[in-house]
Design a protein that fits this description.
The chain has 322 residues and is of the alpha/beta class. The chain is built from eleven helices and eight strands. The protein is globular and about 45 Å long. One of its GO terms (molecular function) is monoacylglycerol lipase activity.
Length: 322
């Protein structure tokens, strides 16, 4: 009888729960992410610049060592770094930013999201929180790597050293399959016929409806879909597509270039291309690793970042990881 009563209440609770949270897996994922943030000691903060709000989380305080600013890839957010910073010392000042239009940072559909404009916005953020009172270690992966490289070229006094993780924006002798697909995708977006990259609010609402039978806050979701489409077009525009390639010879900070050997998105040969253009650089090609280094090899990545950080700072190489 007790078991029957228990099953009855569990059934009632499950029904209420499913009605209230149709996307319960998403809810559980968010809870998991929040727990990770707490476990890592990351504090979520906001800062505004002329009405534009940046969201970031950080740990530690600026000290004798350079701070670390980490820029995530396209369509991700600051949580991408949680597994990487797990091994960082607690006294190392780390800042992980939601890139313009991503996560909880303001999303303006009328804004330009080319690589150069995003680098300018990152500079505004850096000045707002006073991060450039002394040079800092700048880390960027994928799109974040492109913007980090351009930032280092445009604001050299801000950057003490630079870590670039499989960044796009380079000119290759031949396109790989992924780049060929992207170019086809861009052609189809220009013809307004591509269902994967919405260019209007209605297209965004329709795309969200395909993904879910119960559309919740459709305008917000449509805005996100529209932004991703616009962000893709801005970053892949002629103005922005190869800006890292055109800027890499201007980078003067010591640079670390990390690439996954099995990267099918950006060809690993880009690592040598960057190394030849940046005077003080080192290259690491990771085995059993694709484009998403933070997911494939977070511990190895953490170790490489810290070794590079301390080697440039001139501190003990055997400093213990937290």
């Amino acid at each position: 009888m007790l078991m029957l009563i228990a099953f009855f209440f569990v059934g009632i609770f499950s029904t209420i729960f499913n009605r209230r949270y149709s996307h319960w897996t998403l809810l559980l994922f968010r809870i998991m992410i929040r727990c990770k943030r707490l476990k890592r000691g990351m504090k979520v903060k906001f800062v505004e610049h002329e009405g534009y709000r940046f969201c970031y989380f950080c740990r530690g305080k600026p000290g004798s060592q350079p701070s670390v600013l980490m820029l995530h890839g396209f369509s991700f957010n600051k949580d991408m770094w949680l597994d990487t910073i797990k091994l960082f010392p607690k006294d190392l000042h780390v800042v992980c930013l939601d890139m313009p239009g991503h996560g909880e940072t303001t999303r303006l559909l009328a804004e330009s999201y080319t690589a150069v404009n995003q680098a300018k916005m990152i500079h505004q953020f850096v000045e707002c929180i006073g991060l450039n009172q002394k040079p800092f270690h700048l880390v960027g992966m994928s799109m974040g790597g492109t913007i980090a490289g351009i930032y280092a070229a445009q604001y050299p006094s801000d950057v003490s050293h630079l870590s670039l993780l499989c960044p796009p924006g380079l000119r290759y002798a031949a396109d790989n399959e992924f780049i060929k697909h992207l170019k086809e995708l861009r052609k189809s977006t220009n013809s307004h016929s591509n269902p994967l990259v919405p260019l209007t609010v209605k297209q965004g609402e329709r795309q969200h409806a395909w993904k879910s039978s119960r559309v919740k806050r459709p305008q917000k979701q449509a805005s996100l879909c529209f932004f991703l489409g616009k962000g893709f077009l801005d970053m892949s525009s002629k103005e922005s597509r190869y800006h890292l390639h055109d800027s890499m010879s201007k980078i003067r900070a010591p640079a670390q270039i990390i690439w996954g050997r099995e990267d099918k998105v950006m060809d690993p040969s880009g690592a040598e291309m960057l190394a030849k253009a940046i005077p003080a650089s080192q290259v690491h090609i990771l085995k059993k690793c694709g484009h998403f280094i933070t997911l494939d090899r977070p511990r190895k990545l953490s170790k490489l970042l810290l070794e590079f950080h301390y080697s440039v700072c001139g501190t003990a190489e055997n400093k213990k990881m937290a």
